[in-house]
Amino acid sequence: MPFENQPSQNHSFTLKVPDGDNRERHVCDNCEFVYYINPKIVVGSVVTWRETPDAEEQFLLCKRAIEPRKGYWTIPAGFMEQNETTEEGAAREAREEACAEIEIRALLAVYNIPRISQVQMMHVARLREKKFAAGEESLEVKLFKWDDIPWDEIAFPSVHWALNQYREIHDRQVFAPFGNPPGTEKLVR
Amino acid sequence: MPFENQPSQNHSFTLKVPDGDNRERHVCDNCEFVYYINPKIVVGSVVTWRETPDAEEQFLLCKRAIEPRKGYWTIPAGFMEQNETTEEGAAREAREEACAEIEIRALLAVYNIPRISQVQMMHVARLREKKFAAGEESLEVKLFKWDDIPWDEIAFPSVHWALNQYREIHDRQVFAPFGNPPGTEKLVR
Ligand SMILES: [Zn+2]
Ligand SMILES: [Zn+2]
């Protein structure tokens, strides 16, 4: 019985192993509905811009207007929604947080954070035009040259990871996506 | 209030836009708990084996013991669980469905099926030793040479995609993961 169709129904959940399953789930006593708790996907992008083909690359960052890490800088990223693709989700986040239209070029990295059951899929993208602004979840949106990135005011470890891994491959056409950087086990387990 | 900590609580959900959100969610009238419905991740692997380094590659397939597509052949794959990484999940599925220990080499493909809000992450993997058996969800587990793969009895389109894309890169060290093959829009939207 799909939950989507019965939003106002009363559910009373008990933790038990459903028939044919091999681990405990939240099962409703009234209607057998199973509330599966699944890992969540975050989709985001390292978004770049060049004034001219020879100009130095700049990076689009958003200053967070909301907790957690309000006031700190991040790349456009957020939870993937229903009925979209990973790339559509990453483009939507750039639109919502930075009022920016982006062109996604490749998958940069897949980060696993099993402690909070999160999979982050970070992409390599370009601004389609030099047009951006603070969306509802941002205080400010700005282009930074690499040396001007406010490294001490970055919101999350994975933003560091993505920016630095991007620098390793930014002139390569074909590369395998990165994973969590070595030595970050304590942050994710 | 994390749902995980109150499994037996009664929830009565109404569809409304929570504060600070921009789309309708299922919000509990009693406790403000929000039931987010998120895309789900499937993790799987194309698993190969060679009798000797020069021998022809063989592919590990499982005959499904459960619906959907009972009696049809698939690669080891299933829903990612909480508190594991994507690679751990793919290895767990090989263990559960094929009683096999695998070594994961790379991310082969990311398939998006937005119609059912599913993201499939398929890997390239090798059997660690020639040891496998039917797990609870399998009727039979077998190694097939490429030409012997039962192409007419494959369970899902994405199994076709993964096997064929694997053939394109199986001797390459570095490659970008594939996406949905061109022309499959009707299957996924
Ligand atoms: Zn119920
Ligand atoms: Zn409640």
From TrEMBL, chains A, B:
Gene3D superfamilies assigned: 2.20.70.10, Nucleoside Triphosphate Pyrophosphohydrolase
Protein name stated in the entry: NUDIX hydrolase
Domain of life of the source: Bacteria
Domain Nudix hydrolase: 39-167
GO MF annotations, alphabetized: hydrolase activity
InterPro entries cross-referenced by the UniProt entry: NUDIX_hydrolase-like_dom_sf, NUDIX_hydrolase_dom, Nudix_N
UniProt keyword Protease present: no
Keywords assigned by UniProt, alphabetized: Hydrolase
PANTHER family according to UniProt: NUDIX HYDROLASE 23 (PTHR43222), NUDIX HYDROLASE 23, CHLOROPLASTIC (PTHR43222:SF2)
